[in-house]
Amino acid sequence: MSNSTQTSASNRIHALLDENSFVEVGGYVTARSTDFNMSAKETPADGVVTGYGTIDGCLVYVYSQDASVLGGSVGEMHAKKITKLYNMAMKTGAPVIGLVDCAGLRLQEATDALNGFGELYMSQTLASGVIPQITAVFGACGGGMAVSAAMADFTFMETKGGKLFVNAPNAISENYAEKCNTASADFQSKETGLVDFTAEGDEILTGIRILVSILPANNKDDLSYSECNDDLNRVCSDLSNYVGDTTIALTQISDENFFMETKKDYAPSMVTGFIRLNGETIGCVANKTEAYDESGVKTAQYDAVLTAEGCIKAAEFVNFCNAFNIPLLTLVNVKGYEATKCAEKAIAKASAKLTYAFANATVPKVTVVIGNAFGTAYLTMNSKSIGSDVVYAWENASIGMMDAESAAKIMYADEIAKADNGKALITEKAESYKQAQSSAVAAAKRGYVDDIIDASETRARVAAAFEMLFTKNEDRPAKKHGTI
Fold this sequence. Notes:
Distance between the termini: 51 Å
Strand content: 15-25%
Helix content: 25-40%
Number of helices: 16
Structural class: alpha/beta
Largest sheet: 8 strands, mixed
Number of strands: 20
Mean pLDDT: 90
Shape: elongated
């Protein structure tokens, strides 16, 4: 019989996992330290419940911190229990899920606790790209534990009770929680992009179950496939209406309209998330210029440009998909880069990271140009030239250096200045330039686009492309790793 009591920590585990599937490991472990009168304190399970169970029959490992034991602080044995869990997960190839409610480092154990944290970081590093790591913040997640959460692949956070910080808001010079609560779910999801999903307790547990169900168990054995009950040739008749809101477009393309968006509130002009096609999990990256609510009312509008935040968001997502052999679908509608003084500080490096992520990915990659695809910003968005296996374009798509009118004004500036009717000449030259250099047909003639398709056929054509690419195998130059 375990020493750990039925706390909110263990309750969360039982609510997350399949009924009666949880097996606790290390329930008798308590704190070892005797300094500062620690031997007189009760530390059941040393403040963290650890073990394994199943989600929809699939093995997962879980740890859940207990804030009723020394604030859930991480001490030597607390950290060792989580590290041991990672070791077991690595041996069996199963995800690790952390349910966090932690006051941070246990001060009474000082260097022992520090060493434990370091061992935890090492375990997470070794597990990165091998097994999925999911963190959910239910209470405090401070200091070193915030670093651990950032090392996870996906982070959930409670909207009201969650607090995620390296430095507490009141510890930041000229700031306090009432002025700007940098520890809040709102700040961490919208401003930092650290948190992927925000919700309340039960919704978070449901979200974790859904995420686990669509992800591979590890980087070699893919158990994420499901039976497809949707018509693969289903026509998406009004898909062309959603060039702007690609969240809706991806939902329509997917099996049974399933779409799980990641980092929804961060850099919203770049969409990342997962759909299903023919029962297979597909990672999606898409530009977004408009947002509509469920009633069809426009709620936001964005420039069709790459931002530094959007590029980093997408690059991290692409790297995850490549590590776990998840195919990638890209919907392109971009005219260039964000042009502000602030953006200029980071856009080149961020764009380089996204370009590298797509070019470096060896998973099946399909791109659909649904609107504009101009300049090197288009190249970054998984173009044929950086390794996309199949590129489709919708009939009205434009592909080239820049929009035809701007090109005409530059190329024929002297002629336009001398013309009696400059506007008419611009229109004439722009149309000529578009047909020759800035249309989907022009790109297809040069082999940069594989086919021009009707928007309504997108689901069928993309599903067929991924089926064709299922056995793709691509070798790259031998090296330790890239440096971009």
